[in-house]
């Protein structure tokens, strides 16, 4: 039986942080041999907020190199750049024309990010989830491994696909497969270091709010030293009144590979003065091999380019086929 297909991506905006690693990439790596995988660097999404043209290309390569450094295996996965496959933009337009405006206005991420853009919000920010739907539907993906914050966009993707199939595929087989989210409980929502009630984000203006996968040991040490805690002695999971405590213990659990029960016992009598150096050491040593591998990959740009070229070819072959099916369903005269 053919393997199920997985599609996921990360924006090349700013630094890839522990939320992206624990919520997304780590799960891609763990599940990769079971699936046929497509992992993209979603550079079209990256311009939905103000971006820096001088760094976009370099950031795009860096994210692809981090995928490889974290253990994405090219035997199981294709890595490509979203803008290298124009079908993503074209299908977005087609889907725009069948997506009700109020579905997009209801999206939590839009509401949150719109506040930061002020009064004159980009159309692109509103349209972000339709582009994401196009990304996924083009590959007829079965599973989409993401963090908790993307769950609502996945539901919207299913709604858009179902609406399209219902409106345009009445007497024929459906154009789009409805994808399922793949969200692992642990690490699905890593919180900010400066506010345990907000998710860790690339777009948070403060770099102190996150630990980046490529941070130097001194940066990690200083961020953990300065991160928000509480005055209570003894550390515990799952106390809603102590969101920072739950977040930092979860980070320690995931970065050390220990179980929740082991961490509960180890840390229950600790104060922050004892715990913070432990979390610092554990994080630095868990990230070291990824950083070493990243530096090796970045030293060989030709290799990275060949990976992305091969990824683009494999992705475009599938994406163009789906795009043509969508256009046929809509009644377009296809190019001869
Ligand atoms: P931005 O703030 O610009 O939206 P981001 O930090 O949310 O950036 P994305 O590129 O939007 O990063 O998301 C990439 C992947 O990382 C998605 O699967 C998303 O669900 C996941 N992710 C993002 N933040 C977290 C987090 N704090 N915890 C767990 N997963 C996360
Ligand atoms: Mg995001």
TrEMBL record:
Q: Which positions bind ATP?
A: 11-13, 19-20, 147-149, 190, 199-203
What keywords were assigned to this record? Aminoacyl-tRNA synthetase, ATP-binding, Cytoplasm, Ligase, Nucleotide-binding, Protein biosynthesis
- Organism of provenance: Trichocoleus desertorum GB2-A4
Q: Which InterPro entries match?
A: aa-tRNA-synth_I_CS, aa-tRNA-synth_Ic, Rossmann-like_a/b/a_fold, Trp-tRNA-ligase, Trp-tRNA-ligase_bac-type, Trp-tRNA_synthetase
Tell me the classification of the organism that encodes this protein.
Bacteria, Bacillati, Cyanobacteriota, Cyanophyceae, Leptolyngbyales
Q: List, alphabetically, the NCBIfam families matched.
A: trpS
Q: Which family does it belong to?
A: Belongs to the class-I aminoacyl-tRNA synthetase family.
Matching entries from Pfam families are given as: tRNA-synt_1b
Positions occupied by motif 'HIGH' region = 12-20
Q: Where in the cell is it found?
A: Cytoplasm
Role played: Catalyzes the attachment of tryptophan to tRNA(Trp).
* Enzyme Commission (EC) number: 6.1.1.2
Name of the protein described by the UniProt record: Tryptophan--tRNA ligase
Motif 'KMSKS' region residues?
199-203
What residues does L-tryptophan bind to?
A: 135
Q: Name one GO molecular function term.
A: tryptophan-tRNA ligase activity
The protein's annotated catalytic reaction(s) are: tRNA(Trp) + L-tryptophan + ATP = L-tryptophyl-tRNA(Trp) + AMP + diphosphate + H(+)
Cited SUPFAM superfamilies: Nucleotidylyl transferase (SSF52374)
Describe the protein's quaternary organization and the partners it interacts with.
Answer: Homodimer.
Q: Does the keyword Cytoplasm apply?
A: yes
């Amino acid at each position: 039986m053919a393997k199920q297909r997985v599609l996921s991506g990360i924006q090349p905006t700013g630094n890839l942080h522990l939320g992206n690693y624990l919520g997304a990439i780590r799960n891609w790596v763990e599940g990769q041999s079971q699936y046929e995988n497509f992992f993209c660097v979603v550079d079209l999404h990256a311009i939905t907020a103000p971006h820096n043209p001088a760094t976009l290309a370099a950031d795009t390569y860096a994210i692809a190199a981090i995928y490889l450094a974290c253990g994405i295996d090219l035997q199981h996965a294709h890595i490509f750049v979203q803008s290298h496959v124009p079908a993503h933009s074209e299908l977005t337009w087609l889907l725009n024309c069948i997506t009700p405006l109020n579905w997009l206005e209801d999206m939590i991420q839009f509401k949150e990010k719109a506040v930061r853009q002020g009064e004159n919000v980009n159309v692109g920010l509103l349209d972000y989830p339709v582009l994401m739907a196009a990304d996924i539907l083009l590959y007829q993906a079965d599973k989409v491994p993401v963090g908790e914050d993307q769950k609502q966009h996945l539901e919207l993707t299913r709604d858009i696909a179902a609406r399209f199939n219902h409106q345009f595929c009445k007497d024929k087989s459906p154009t789009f497969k409805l994808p399922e989210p793949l969200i692992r409980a642990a690490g699905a929502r890593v919180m900010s270091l400066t506010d345990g009630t907000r998710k860790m984000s690339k777009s948070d203006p403060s770099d102190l709010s996150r630990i980046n996968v490529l941070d130097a040991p001194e940066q990690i040490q200083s961020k953990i030293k300065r991160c928000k805690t509480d005055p209570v002695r003894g550390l515990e999971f799952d106390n809603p009144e102590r969101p920072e405590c739950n977040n930092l213990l979860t980070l320690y659990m995931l970065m050390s590979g220990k179980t929740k029960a082991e961490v509960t016992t180890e840390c229950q009598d600790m104060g922050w003065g004892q715990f913070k150096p432990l979390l610092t050491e554990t994080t630095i040593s868990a990230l070291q091999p990824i950083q070493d591998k990243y530096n090796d990959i970045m030293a060989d740009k030709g290799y990275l380019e060949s990976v992305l070229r091969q990824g683009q070819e494999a992705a475009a072959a599938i994406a163009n086929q789906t795009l043509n099916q969508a256009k046929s369903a809509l009644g377009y005269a296809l190019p001869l």
